[in-house]
Amino acid sequence: MKSMILKSYGDDAKFEVADVAEPTLKPGHVVVRIAATSVNTVDTMIRQMGTDLPLSPDLPAILGMDFAGTIAEVGEGVTGFAVGDEVYGCAGGLAELQGALAEYMPTDARLIAHKPKSLTMKEAAALPLVGITAFEGLQRAGIAADKKVLVQGGAGGVGHIAIQLAKHFGADVYATGTGEKQISAIEGFGATAIDFMNEKIADYVGQHTGGAGFEVIFDSVGGANLTNSFEAAALNANVATTVSLLELDLTPAHFKGLSLHVIFMLIPMLYDHKREDHGAILARLAEIADKGALKPIVDEVAFGLEDVGAAYERLLSGKAIGKVVIEV
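^ that's the sequence the OP posted. Answer follows.
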């Protein structure tokens, strides 16, 4: 089968066309004919950092975590899926798991779900990693209809999905961004936009919460921005973040009694830990999408399988609006 492989890691590592053997079907697995795959920041980190990341696959490597496609083969013990079913998931491209930058991909059936009928293959391929991350973060942070929710980075890949899910769950949703495009996108998803470059935290906390703070904060920016989330949080609030790779003074969190939830959605793939949870979340996301309450933004620039390098550069450039998707 045709695939795009890396023979080395680093800033200048190039993807190369390769003809590799089709995957061998294993019990509990399916083989998917890939229609589309999206590029996530973690994919670019793997290409750049290689073995400096403990989750990077051995070389030569086939990357690509997110995908949408059609089941070509069904392994022993798999129930609920049949040849010809359209599915989507985040199931490879790290450790020993083959990725989606190929015509066919083997995947644990616990990590996939039937594709949302209302989404195209390109749209469905844009959803798994960011969708699971947003869903898990909001659930762990106690999302509920009576909560005031702040999404940090509301125009980003995870953030724009978190806004839509929080709205679906009935919360009162606010989100940070800056610039006309980001503010417009946030408002388009039904959230109240906060321009973090022009509004002080104390001012927007006072305006939108009467000074009490937000009860749920989903911080998709993370890192040093966590201190801003702590400042914006209510007493005993829940803060979920996708980026916590730093040393941080937790004193503000202590005196507010905050709960911090670190979301690392690759755990089921890396450790074969509760993989069925991801399949269940994907099924739930499909239901929400088919109700018209969830749709990922796909960047306008189109890429084919042999354009993988350009797709990675598009994401790294910061010019993409929404998820960068590759059609296979």
